[in-house]
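User: Okay, second chain of the day. Same drill as before: sequence in, structure tokens out.
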Amino acid sequence: MTSPATYQFGDRAVRRLGYGAMQLAGPGVFGPPRDRDVALAVLREAIASGIDHIDTSDFYGPHITNQLIREALHPYPDNLTIVTKIGARRGPDASWNPAFTPEALTAAVHDNLRNLGVDALDVVNLRLMFGIHGPAEGSLAAPLTVLADLQRQGLVRQIGLSNVTARQIAEARAIADIVCVQNHYNLAHRDDDALIDALAADGIAYVPFFPLGGFSPLQSAVLDDVAASLGATAMQTALAWLLHRAPNILLIPGTSSPAHLRENLAAGALRLPAAAIAALDAIAAPA
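Assistant: Same drill. Structure tokens below.
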């Protein structure tokens, strides 16, 4: 079965298979990359391969990934959409700390502008930190109002949300136009199934983080068997399933390896027969 190759992401259409820059920073997403030249090569190959959607944040490193993106790609192609996120700050011990005050949010936007070398940010996701391992309820009105004001100033073109619940999305949409939601979702972690479909109906992109399991890579005998039957890797198959899952899903698998980048991109051409989809769907089904 085939899936659409592009999706309308706010005011422009992007290819559904993009690139996440998080792994370009050092271990634990902190400090410089092991090999700066390879990191720059990965970014340049991503663009040369047709990727037009890069996900990043100035708290990756911190500052490292945005500086690499600027060094590798500036001046940026006209069709490139760079999505960043604010709402957290890294401690000197590499900790991830909430940064929701108006001053912290405003500083984060200016940090992103400076390190990316742009006058306005294409998309900024407000990343909520109410939950440690996933979304938790709590009002986002105060920080989102700050971000919406920065949008009115022309520093932010479009706004998205990350690590949020359906209730928070509804609250946000009463304050600002929301073009994307970025939550934890993959073949085995499917808490957002209903949310994805609701967002698709409203034309809002859904961008799963940890699409391949994140720090705990997906492991499934069923996934391995389906991948073998397709002549693909398990990770390619998991990405192909996400592309099939809903037309509004945009993927941002990350890597610091050119070879792994090419492997991820090949998932966009992988076609899943109905039997494979049924087997993969069942992985997350209740026992």
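The domain at 13-219+247-271 is CATH 3.20.20.100 (TIM Barrel).

User: Thanks, on to the next one.
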